[in-house]
Amino acid sequence: MISENETIAVFGQFTYTYVHTQNTFTSPFSIKAIVKDGLITYFQFMEDTYASAASFHVGGEWSIPQDSDSAKNFTVSATLEH
């Protein structure tokens, strides 16, 4: 955790388990918050959303387009380590 004046930043990692599929993944996270008069007035949470989305899949894969050149697309597999 780092703070300067009213701004606070937190960095770490969580291990998530999607209960329905039992898919587990570990994601780094960061939080930025602004605190004024003891109250949080701004809160931003960031995580690995691709890993989070993949944990809901039970099979298959999907393609992520990079731009109009389909050769630059990449594929995300739903297979995760347990």
Summarize the structure.
The protein has 82 residues and is mainly β. It has one helix at residues 49-54, and strands at residues 2-4, 7-18, 23-36, 39-47, 61-64, 74-77.
When the domains are counted, the total is: 1
CATH topology: Nuclear Transport Factor 2, Chain: A
Q: Give the strand tally.
A: 6
* CATH class value: Alpha Beta
Strand content: over 45%
Strand order in the sheet with the most strands: 1-2-3-4
How do the helices and strands follow one another from N- to C-terminus? EEEEHEE
Query: Could you tell me the radius of gyration in angstroms?
Result: 17 Å
InterPro entries: NTF2-like_dom_sf (IPR032710)
Polypeptide structure, described:
The protein is mostly beta strands and 82 residues long. The protein has one domain (2-77): Nuclear Transport Factor 2, Chain: A (Roll). The chain has one helix at 49-54; strands spanning 2-4, 7-18, 23-36, 39-47, 61-64, 74-77. A four-stranded antiparallel sheet has the order 1-2-3-4. It is flat, with a radius of gyration of 17 Å. The mean pLDDT is 84.
